[in-house]
Amino acid sequence: MAQASRLVQELKNQLKLHGVTYRELSHELELSESAIKQMFASGNMTLTRLDKICAILSLEIGDLVQLSDQSARQLQALSLDQEAELVSDPKLLLMAYCLVNHWSFSEILTRYTLTEVEGIRYLARLDRMKLIELLPGNRVKPLIASNFAWQADGPIEQYFQREVQGPFFQSNFAEDGCLRLVKNGDISVVARQNLLERLHSIGQQFDDIVREERKIAIEQRQGTTMVLAIRHWMFEAFKELEREEFTQSDST
Length: 252
Prior knowledge:
By secondary structure, the protein is mainly α. The chain folds into two domains: about 1-75, 434 Repressor (Amino-terminal Domain) (Orthogonal Bundle), CATH 1.10.260.40; about 75-250, no CATH class. The protein is built from 13 helices and seven strands. It has helices at about 1-15, 20-30, 35-40, 45-55, 60-75, 80-85, 90-100, 105-110, 115-130, 155-170, 190-215, 235-240, 245-250; strands at about 75, 130-135, 140, 145-150, 180, 225, 230. The strands form three sheets. A three-stranded antiparallel beta sheet has the order 5-7-6, with no helix packed on it. A two-stranded parallel ribbon has the order 1-4.
């Protein structure tokens, strides 16, 4: 029953993230909105109905199970102390970023100017912080979600404002694969809330793409940041740690 409850909760999360309301779902399933609400409140739904809802979200049931398991195991937020320690050391932050994005230890050492001894020390530190579980052979299991929530005005938020926000927008976004979309107009609070829900859905699509892209070789992926704009961009602190051959390839 515990797993079934987690699946229903994850299904609720996915509906919210994809911007699908109970009313819209009722039309798709040809049920009343009250019946949909009751179904989710009770957690009682058939496999056929679960499969239909997953199809609406472009998910397989197996994907939903995987997302549910990940949510159950992974931290969705850090403590203030964990955030402060993470941003206090660029190499520690780099190691955490790579690991939650499923880089292997050898891939990190190949790309960045970290020695093996130094890398192992950071693995042990992240293990003590309970952000990863260190496994034999320097393998790791991330214990924090890659899209974890930041503490309001906490160390990561302050780091972002100081080190990321300004440099990221210092671009004309004219390169291929870049976009800065600026719109202005007078709209109601309700309309703005609807837009927020759609933007959350786009954020979920970004997370879905990141998860799917883990299947391809690391050499074919680029660090990418989206803040209602998107372009190839890396933290300056991370770029400074790249080995020379990768720095040159990024600039071409």
